UniProtKB/TrEMBL annotation:
<comment type="similarity">
    <text>Belongs to the ABC transporter superfamily.</text>
</comment>
<keyword id="KW-0547">Nucleotide-binding</keyword>
<dbReference type="InterPro" id="IPR003593">
    <property type="entry name" value="AAA+_ATPase"/>
</dbReference>
<dbReference type="Pfam" id="PF00005">
    <property type="entry name" value="ABC_tran"/>
</dbReference>
<dbReference type="GO" id="GO:0046677">
    <property type="term" value="P:response to antibiotic"/>
</dbReference>
<dbReference type="InterPro" id="IPR050763">
    <property type="entry name" value="ABC_transporter_ATP-binding"/>
</dbReference>
<dbReference type="InterPro" id="IPR003439">
    <property type="entry name" value="ABC_transporter-like_ATP-bd"/>
</dbReference>
<dbReference type="GO" id="GO:0005886">
    <property type="term" value="C:plasma membrane"/>
</dbReference>
<keyword id="KW-0813">Transport</keyword>
<keyword id="KW-0067">ATP-binding</keyword>
<keyword id="KW-0046">Antibiotic resistance</keyword>
<protein>
    <submittedName>
        <fullName>ABC-2 type transport system ATP-binding protein</fullName>
    </submittedName>
</protein>
<feature type="domain" description="ABC transporter">
    <location>
        <begin position="6"/>
        <end position="234"/>
    </location>
</feature>
<dbReference type="InterPro" id="IPR027417">
    <property type="entry name" value="P-loop_NTPase"/>
</dbReference>
<dbReference type="InterPro" id="IPR017871">
    <property type="entry name" value="ABC_transporter-like_CS"/>
</dbReference>
<dbReference type="GO" id="GO:0016887">
    <property type="term" value="F:ATP hydrolysis activity"/>
</dbReference>
<dbReference type="GO" id="GO:0005524">
    <property type="term" value="F:ATP binding"/>
</dbReference>
Amino acid sequence: MTEPAIRVRDLEKSYKDLHVLRGVDFDVARGSIFALLGSNGAGKTTAVRILSTLLKPDAGSVSVNRFDVATHPANVRESISLTGQFAAVDDILSGRENLVLVARLRHLSNPGRIADDLLRRFSLTDAAARRVATYSGGMRRRLDIAMSLIGNPPVIFLDEPTTGLDPQARIEVWNSVKELARQGTTVLLTTQYLNEAEQLADRIAILHKGRIIVNGTLDELKQLLPPAKVEYVEKQPTLEEIFFAVVGDDSNAGT
Ligand SMILES: Nc1ncnc2c1ncn2[C@@H]1O[C@H](COP(=O)(O)OP(=O)(O)OP(=O)(O)O)[C@@H](O)[C@H]1O
Ligand SMILES: [Mg+2]
C-alpha cells in the first residue's frame, strides 16, 4: 500500500462555541481527485485552511505529502498550492506576465518557458498577451489555477473552483483539473455542486454537522440508495441541457 497523499484523522476545530469539525477522517490517494462536498458553513474552507497550514486544528492529525502539518508546516507548504474562491490574478498584467512574475518570485529558471507551457496546458495561448482585465471568468479561473501550479506542487487544493462560473466555463475548469490528475497531481477540491463532484472526483466525501457522513466512489454512493426502479416518466430537458443545446457544447478555450 502506498502512503496516501493526504491523511486526516480525528480532526476537530471550533470557533468559540461553534464546533465546526467534530472528528473528521479521510485519506486521499496520490494522483486522485477527492471532492469534499457540503452545504454553506459545513466547514469545507476550515478543513482546507487546516490542511494547507493556514489554520491550527484543536485536535487530530493531518499529513500532506507525508509531512505532518503541525510539526513540518514548511515542508507541507512546499508540497502544495492553494487556490481560493476569488481569483488572485493581476488585472493590469497580461496572462503571460502574471505567470512569468510568479515563476520569477519562486526563483525558477526559464520563467518564460514555464509560462508558455502553462498557457498551452490551460488553453490560454491565444489570450497570453492580453490584459487579464479582458478575460472571461472561466479564463481568469484557469489562469489562477495555472499560476498555482508553478513549481509543480504534488498536491493542490481548490476551494470551490467553479463557483460563479457559467456552465461552459465550468467545463473548461473541469477539463483542466482532470488533466492535472492525469499527470499525477493529487487534487482536493471543495464544492457545493453535486454534479461537479460527479463529473470530476474519484472519491466523494460529504461533510455534514462536523463529520464525514459518506465517503466513497460515485458507484458506492449510488448503492446507498435503493436500486433504481423502472418507471415511465416524460422527461423534460434540464435547463443545463437547454443551455448547451442553444449555445452549442463546444467548450471552446479562449472565449
Ligand atoms: N474565523 C472564524 N471565526 C468564527 N467563525 C468562523 C470563522 N471562520 C468560519 N467560521 C464559521 O465556521 C463555519 C464553517 O465555515 P467554513 O467557511 O469552513 O464553511 P464552508 O463549508 O467553507 O462554507 P461555504 O460553502 O459557505 O464556503 C461557518 O458557520 C462559519 O461562519
Ligand atoms: Mg468555503
